[in-house]
Write a structure and sequence with these properties.
The complex is a heterodimer of chains A (247) and B (218). Chain A is an alpha/beta fold and 247 residues long. Chain A contains seven helices and 13 strands. In chain A, the strands form three sheets. In chain A, strands 3, 4, 5, 6, 10, 11, 12 and 13 form an eight-stranded mixed beta sheet that branches. Chain A has a three-stranded antiparallel beta sheet with strand order 7-9-8, covered by helices on one side. Chain A has a two-stranded antiparallel ribbon with strand order 1-2. Chain A is globular and about 65 Å long. Chain B is of the alpha/beta class and 218 residues long. In chain B, the strands form three sheets. In chain B, strands 4-3-2-1-5-10-12-13-14-15 form a ten-stranded mixed beta sheet, with helices on both faces. Chain B has a three-stranded mixed beta sheet with strand order 7-6-11, with no helix packed on it. Chain B has a two-stranded antiparallel ribbon with strand order 8-9. The chains are: A alpha/beta (247), B alpha/beta (218).
Chain lengths: 247, 218
C-alpha cells in the first residue's frame, strides 16, 4: 500500500513526532481565556476561521483584543463577537462593512486601532520572523504617525512599527495535514500564513485534513512547525460579501 | 460634464502598455472596462492577487476568489496569488506602476484624504496609506465637489490625511488637473461642455490656467 509517494509500512515506522490534531473547534479554543489577544486570519469574509469564531462565541470568552484586517459583517465573522460585546479592542485596517462596529466605535464602547493594511501585514510578518519591528512609509504625515519614531532612509521618511504580540493566531486553510502543514487557496490566503507564523499558539482549521505525505512539500505555504493545533472544520458557509457576476 | 463612466473612460487613457496597476474601490474599478485596444495591463488586488480578471459567470463564482472591494472576481491565465505581506511588498518596492483611487479631498500640494470623517464616518484606510506612500504614479478619480456642493480641491485638506505630497493627477467630472511641483492645481483639460469659469467656481484651492485649455477627447 502506498500513500502519496511513500509505503504505508514506512510511514507507520516513522509516525508523526508531535501530536497536533484536536477533535474540533471547541477543543482547539478551550484554553482561550478572557482578555486574550487573538489574531484572526481572513480578508473580509474570505478565508476566515468560521468554526473557531463560532466556538469562541459559544464558549462565552470575552474582553478580547482582536487583530484582523476587517471586523466581519453584522451577523457573520468577527461581527458575531462584536454583537455580543465580547471584543474590547480591535486592530484592523478597514471596518466599513459593519454597522454595529461603527456604532460601538463612534460611541466609544469599543477601543479601535486602525492601521494601514500593509502595516498590519508587516507587523504580523515581523512577529513570525522574530524581528522586533519594521520600517514602513505608510502613514507618514498622517495621524497614524502620532507618537511613533521615524527615520529617514535615502531621503524618504519611514515609521517604526513594532511586531504584534498575540496569544493565539487562528487561521483557516484549504488543506492541511496532521503535522500542521498548510496550503491556502487563492485570495483566501491573505493574512492567514502571516498570522500562522506570528501566534504564540497557532490554531489552524482546514477544509480538508489529510495524513502526512499526502501534500507535496513543494506546495506547502505554512510549514507545520508554526501550527500547534489543527482540525478539519465543518459546515463552511463561506459567505460572499459582494456577489458580482458577468453575463 | 462627465458621469462616473466618463471619468473612468478618461482615466483609461492614462494607463500605459505593459504596466502593473492597482485600482481602488468605486470609479477606479470601472477603468478596467475602458482600456484601449493593444494596451496590456496586469491588475493587482492588494488582498493577494496579480492578474485580476472580470467578474465570473454565475456558475463560476468562487467565494475564495475576491478583490480588495470584496467582489467576486476571476483570476486570468498567468495570475498568481500570495499573502498580504508579499502583496504590500510589491507595492512598497515600487513594482506597481500606477495606483488609481478615490478621494474625499485633495490639496494643492498633493495631499489626499479619503479614510475618515471625525465623529461621523470611520471606515479605515485599508491599503490606501500604503499605496499612496509608495506608488510611482497616483491618479485620483473623484467628483469635483461633495454632496453639500463644497469643493474637494482645497488649499489644505480639512479631513485626516491618507498621505502627503503624493497625488500627481486628478480626474473629475469637470476636468483633468495636475498637481504643480511647487503647489497648485494645474488645469490640463476641460470635460466636454464645461467652461473654465465652472471649473474655477468648483475649485477652492489655487487653480493655475496656462494658455488655451483643450476639451477632453474620450
Amino acid at each position: 500500500m502506498k500513500r502519496g509517494n511513500f509505503d504505508i509500512d514506512f510511514i507507520n515506522q516513522i509516525k508523526s513526532m508531535i501530536y497536533k490534531l484536536v477533535t474540533d473547534a471547541a477543543a482547539a479554543v478551550a484554553d482561550i481565556t478572557d482578555g486574550s489577544t487573538l489574531m484572526l486570519g481572513g480578508f473580509g469574509l474570505c478565508g476566515i476561521p468560521e468554526n473557531c469564531i463560532q466556538a469562541i462565541l459559544e464558549k462565552g470568552t470575552t474582553n478580547l483584543t482582536c487583530i484582523s484586517n476587517n471586523a466581519g459583517v453584522d451577523d457573520f465573522g468577527i461581527g458575531l463577537l462584536l454583537q455580543q460585546k465580547r471584543v474590547k479592542k480591535m486592530i484592523s485596517s478597514y471596518v466599513g462593512e459593519n454597522e454595529e462596529f461603527e456604532r460601538q466605535l463612534l460611541s466609544g464602547e469599543l477601543e479601535v486601532e486602525l492601521i494601514p493594511q500593509g502595516t498590519l501585514a508587516f507587523r504580523c510578518m515581523a512577529a513570525g520572523y522574530g524581528m522586533p519591528a519594521i520600517y514602513t512609509p505608510a502613514g507618514v504625515g498622517t495621524e497614524v504617525a502620532a507618537g511613533k519614531e521615524s527615520r529617514i532612509f535615502d531621503g524618504k521618511e519611514y515609521l517604526l512599527e513594532t511586531a504584534f504580540n498575540a496569544d493565539f493566531a487562528i487561521v483557516k486553510a484549504w488543506k492541511g495535514d496532521t503535522d500542521g502543514n498548510l496550503i491556502f487557496k487563492s485570495t483566501a490566503r491573505n493574512f492567514n500564513p502571516l498570522m500562522a507564523m506570528a501566534g504564540k499558539i497557532t490554531i489552524a482549521e482546514v477544509e480538508e485534513l489529510v495524513e502526512p505525505g499526502m501534500l507535496d512539500p513543494d506546495q506547502i505555504h505554512t510549514p507545520g512547525i508554526y501550527v500547534h493545533r489543527i482540525f478539519e472544520g465543518k459546515n463552511y458557509e463561506k459567505r460572499i460579501e459582494k456577489r458580482t457576476t458577468s453575463k | 460634464m462627465l458621469d462616473k463612466e466618463g471619468i473612468a473612460k478618461r482615466i483609461a487613457k492614462e494607463v500605459k502598455n505593459n504596466t502593473y496597476v492597482n485600482l481602488g474601490i468605486g470609479i477606479p474599478t470601472l477603468v478596467a472596462n475602458y482600456l484601449h485596444e493593444g494596451i496590456n495591463v496586469c491588475f493587482q488586488s492588494e488582498n493577494g492577487l496579480l492578474g485580476v480578471g472580470p467578474f465570473p459567470k454565475e456558475y463560476a463564482v468562487d467565494p475564495d476568489v475576491i478583490n480588495a472591494g470584496k467582489q467576486t472576481i476571476t483570476a486570468l491565465p498567468g495570475a498568481s496569488s500570495f499573502d498580504s505581506a508579499m502583496s504590500f511588498g510589491m507595492i512598497h518596492s515600487k513594482k506597481i506602476d500606477l495606483t488609481i483611487l478615490g478621494a474625499m479631498e485633495v490639496s494643492e500640494n498633493g495631499d489626499i484624504a479619503n479614510w475618515k470623517i471625525p465623529g461621523k464616518m470611520v471606515k479605515g484606510m485599508g491599503g490606501a496609506m500604503d499605496l499612496v506612500a509608495s506608488a510611482k504614479h497616483i491618479i485620483v478619480a473623484m467628483q469635483h465637489v461633495n454632496k453639500a456642493g463644497e469643493s474637494k480641491l482645497l488649499t489644505k485638506c480639512d479631513l485626516p490625511l491618507t498621505g502627503k505630497n503624493c497625488v500627481k493627477r486628478i480626474v473629475t467630472e469637470l476636468a483633468v488637473i495636475d498637481i504643480a511641483p511647487e503647489g497648485g492645481f494645474v488645469l490640463i483639460e476641460r470635460a466636454p461642455g464645461v467652461s473654465i469659469e465652472q471649473i474655477k467656481n468648483a475649485t477652492a484651492g489655487k487653480l493655475l490656467i496656462n494658455g488655451d485649455i483643450p476639451e477632453m477627447a474620450l
